[in-house]
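G., before I forget:
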Amino acid sequence: MARPSRAPVAPPAEEGNRRAELIRTAGRLFREKGFDATTIRDIAAAVGMRSGSPFYHFKSKQDLLKAVMIEGLDVALVGMRAVAGRGGSPEELFRDLVHAHLRLILDPANDFSILLYEWRSLTEESRAEVIAAKDRYEEVWRVALEPLVEQGRIGGGRLAHLFVFGALNWIVQWYHPEGGLSIDQVAGKAVDFLLRP
Amino acid sequence: MARPSRAPVAPPAEEGNRRAELIRTAGRLFREKGFDATTIRDIAAAVGMRSGSPFYHFKSKQDLLKAVMIEGLDVALVGMRAVAGRGGSPEELFRDLVHAHLRLILDPANDFSILLYEWRSLTEESRAEVIAAKDRYEEVWRVALEPLVEQGRIGGGRLAHLFVFGALNWIVQWYHPEGGLSIDQVAGKAVDFLLRP
DNA sequence: CCTACCGATCGGTAGG
DNA sequence: CCTACCGATCGGTAGG
């Protein structure tokens, strides 16, 4: 009564906010416990919903995982392209990419790291979509690495970027912030390992 | 009647064979589908048992995973120590270790690779046991790497072995036998990447 | 987004 | 190692 029916026609930001909240929370739980071990009920409870409600925003649990991954890759790609656009020598570019990548996968506020280990949980179609996004991300790296491989600063030839990804992505397995090394310090050590003098 | 009661007192090899068969089959399925996505029924069916029977050999699904991992690490450790005992220069030893490690994690007949990605599925106690076995394995590597790091043939200082493991273990993510490279060829490329001239 | 619920599946067990 | 079964849980849905 007090409020006239001037309420917005299309549900505004709020709807997107809840969706974004689900993605963020699901990402965190998937990372902490794994996709299979995380239930829709866990996710719903963590955002203050009832168990059936996430399905109002996502048609399946799979779909939620796909959204988490693509969201993560989009954020990553934007960041990487910004770095790549800064210019500088191949070595400087490489250093910057390593630092940016590690901040991305090691930051606990980020859920990028589930991209590394939950491929198997995606359906065939979702996987194709996510792989396409991943390929765009890797392309930035391949281009950046090429001159360094050619100069002999990085070994491994055509496989160099795969070995580089391995050395970097594996860090999520052993890095702990309390260990005394900052992310940037680890990045420095990684560059020292990867790049020949 | 025809056969006198000279049947063996303790159930012989057969019992161990069934157990070993369960470990081998469970390992393959865990690797293919992941621990959570593999059911006891899958495993039982694959070895020709009924769904309840694996629990005659293992008291829980967890226990079966632990057995798969420890079995895998034991096999690996024996192989690695044999390599380490062969002697030779630090560089030769390193090459040999890389080849042996990759044969271990890339051979589809082996289930060593699930060690890399199913830590989360272990209970606290099982994990401690498996980590102890893993530490023994890594020790071989740390010793072998030390002189090379000191000579500047490998970068990364104290973290060198972690970066090396990363570059090597990541290979399971992208290697396909049909890709035209043999395991030993990939190993050669890996050494080229890791070891400075 | 909630209520109320389903169908299916799953790890595990008793009792032989 | 099988038969027969349980208790719990889970993804998902109808209907509002």
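Chain B touches chain A at residues 33-34, 36-37, 117, 120-121, 154-157, 159-160, 162-171, 173-174, 186, 189-190, 192-196 (CB under 8 Å). The mean pLDDT of chain B is 90.

More on Monday.
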